[in-house]
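ok posting inputs for the pyridoxal-5'-phosphate job
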Amino acid sequence: MKGGKSMAEVVQREPENRIGMEFNAEKYKTDFPILSRMIRGTKLVYLDSAATTQKPRVVIDAVDQYYRLHNANVHRGLHTLAEEATAAYEATRDKIAGFIGGVKREEIIYTRNATEAINMVASSWGYQNIKKGDRIVITQMEHHANLVPWIVLSRKTGAELVYIPIDPEGYLDLADLKDIIAPNTKIVALTHMSNVLGTINPVDEIIALAHKRGAVALVDGAQSVPHMPVDVRAMDADFLAFSAHKMLGPTGLGVLYGKEELLSRMEPVQYGGEMISEVRYDYAAWNELPHKFEAGTPNIEAAFAFLPALEYLEKIGMENIRRHEMELTGYALDKLAGLEFIKVFGPKDLNHRGGAVSFIDKNIHPHDMATFLDTLGIAVRAGHHCAQPLTRLLGVNSTTRASLYLYNTHNDIDQLITGLKEARRYFRYE
Ligand SMILES: Cc1ncc(COP(=O)(O)O)c(C=O)c1O
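and the output
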């Protein structure tokens, strides 16, 4: 798998995981209290994990435990609670550093979400390094989070913004890559996995070319880090952004990984407490990494509860999660292909796609479809999925998206398929 760990590496780094054991999604489901909720008389079928994932009991309990036992501000106090809160907050940073391939803890910056992580790079590294005549390269399949910051940066600096196109199947068209990543390119920023098409991009190859041109590479890992092994060092990305809430963790916490040599030369984005080493009335100097980028009181509760989320994922094993989602995505694609009124977008090859499956019904609007499915207890997403240019490129103004995770089962897909058929009857197309 491109950009991922080999199976041998996974086994070595995650000795307690259960490679080869049967993946029991039905059992994992019971770890998520919300998944036994009844919605309009039916047990919830949650197929919207690309938007946000549900949380296992260990994460919910950690939030409760944090406020019951450990609540204090970090890095400031000398009392027991402050020491415990700080230790836990920093322990999660260490866990994250290990989770993405064993990087330095100084290279892990806490943010609010993936969006903030990408904005930090655009507004710090971007303004320090990009000027008129330079080139910024992104792709046609970016989420607005990895699109709008670059539109603004190019508008404000006069740098050109150039897109790697996609082909009709939903892959990046790399035919002209050498021309697109021209010698004046300063940054290539691309998604690892599309939240609309599910496409997994060959980031290694693109990063290698970016580096050859002297450019840096940012990978939007919001959809890949939760669903497959991601080794940022093997990939050699300069920056990687992702969100805790898309990988079983709490909302309000994201991660920016950046190579130390780049982060150390970057200006902070926000100024205030925590991020300084010394302040006088006429002078301020910055704290060392990673604190230089973490002004003010952070989301301590979320960092506290993200640790058990990462442990939960590691225990199952990211390779196993990826394998389960590949199998289930294949099942969903086969079933959807059997419905002549449904058109699915994105690649068919499971080796190059994840479990975000976008489709349209030839007659029923995606919003009507999602609303109807909700009456059956099935949660899907409908709209442009924060990728308006891509949706337009697909020739539609919205799609319905079913997106999978480790707790989804064949039965969930069967219920979706039944729901799609019932919608045809309800809206009187059959
Ligand atoms: C590919 C991709 N990038 C970035 C984001 C932004 O994530 P967040 O809203 O957590 O910042 C998302 C969210 O859906 C996404 O799917």
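notes: Confidence is low (pLDDT under 50) at residues 1-20. The radius of gyration is 22 Å.
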